[in-house]
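#structure-requests
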Amino acid sequence: MSKKPKAVATMKQLISHLLGFCWLVCFTGTQCFTSDDDMCQYSTTCPSFATCENITTGYHCTCKRGYISSSLEEHFTNPAVKCVVDRCQDSSTCPAFATCENVAGGYHCTCKRGFASSSGKQNFTDPTVKCIDVNECSQDPPVCGPHNQCNNTRGSFTCQCSPGYSSPSGTSWKPGDSHTLDCTENLISCQPRILQRDDFKSLCGNSTQHGNQQNNRFCTFLNETSKTLESACGNGNQSISLKEVSTSIDLLFYATAQQSNGSKEEVALVATIFLQSVESAALATARKSPGNKTQTITGETMTIVAQRVTDNCSRAGKMIELNAENELMSIDCMTVVGAREQGSGVVAFISYATLESILNNNFIDQQNLREDVKLGSTMLNSKVVSGTIGKPGPLSKPFNFTLEHKQKKEMEDKIICVFWNLTGPWFTEGCRLLRENSTHTTCTCNHLSSFAILMASHAIKAVL
C-alpha cells in the first residue's frame, strides 16, 4: 500500500511554514509533496509500462523495453506522456529493405537507399507495401560517367571502365567509395597477346629482346619479332602511317615463313605470334591516326585496312565496311566503340597474300569442324584474313566477312567457315555460313580472329 503524501492541514502548521521557509502550500483534498519526498515511491508518478528513477534534480520516467514514450523522449516527467508499444521493435513491422522510424503518434516505414516503395510513397505503414530494387542503370542521364558500363546490384550499382579504357584509381567504382573513376582510353600494346602470358615470358629467359638464347631458333624468332614491332609501332603518341610499318611487317612475314619447316606445333605457335603481331601493329597505328580516316596499304605479303572511329556512331545501325584486296569485312559501329561509350574505337582488317600456304591442309582436323557428314578431300579455298578491334571476347553483334574462292566451287562441294585457333587447328565454333555462290562466300562470326574458307569436295555420307 502506497504512502499518502504529507498535507499541511492546520493554521498553526501553515504559520510555522510561512515564518520559516515555505516549500509548498497544499489544500485539503489535493496531493502535494515536500522536497524531501521520494517521488518514485508513488505509483502515479510515471505512466504504465514505465520505470521511475530519482536523480539529483528530482526524478524522470523511462519507458520499459518494447515501449516508447508518446513524446519520443527517452526520459520525461510530463504526466501527459504515455508509454506506447514500440512497433519498430518488431522486425516484421516493415518489409525487407526498409527502416522503421517512431514518430509522434505512431511510426512509419521508409525504403532504404537503392529501393523504392511499391506504393510510390516515401513513408508508409501499409503492410502490403514492398520495397523494390531501383535499377539505377536505366536512369537518364546515366549514373556512370563516359566510357563506363553500369552494373545494377541489389540496392546499389557499380560502374566499370568499358573494354579498352582504364582509370588510375582502378577499373570499378560503387557508391560510398572514396575514389573516383575517370576512365580514359588505353594505348594498344604492340606486343602480341600470346607473348604476354607468363609461360611465354619465361620461355626465353627474362627478356626476348637481348637475344640471350641465340642458339634457340624459336627465341631468335621472338627477338626478331620484338625488334620488328618496336620499329612498326614507334614510340609515344607520334602519328605513324601504315605505309611506314608495311616494310617491317613484310620482314616479319619472311621470318615467320622461315619457321614453316618446323614441327606442326612450332609452326602453329609462330603463325599465331605473327597474326597477333600484325593485328597489334595495325591497331596501334590506327589509334594514332587523326579523325575517322581509313588507311589502306598493300605490301608484298599483305594488305592492311585500318580505321579509327571517333564520331560515336552518328546513327543507329551504322556499319563499318573495310575492303582489303576484294576481301570484305562488315561490322556494326557500336561493336567497335562499345554500346554505352561516348568515345572512339579502332578496327583493322588484314588480307594475307600467301599465308594459306603455311596454315595449310596440315591444320585441318575434321573432328574440329563439327559437320554432320563425313567430308571428302578438304582444302583451304581462300586467303587468310584477320579482323580485330583490340578487345578480346565475344562481340555484342556478329560481324560478316566475304572471301573470294581460290578455286571455283562446284555444286557438290561443301563450304565451311573457319577461324584460326591459338593452338593451331582450324575451328568452326562461333562461325557459320551466311551465303555462297561459285566464286564468293560470306560468313558471320560472333568473335574476331583470323579466318578462312574451307572447301570439302564430295560430302560422301552421313556420320552415324
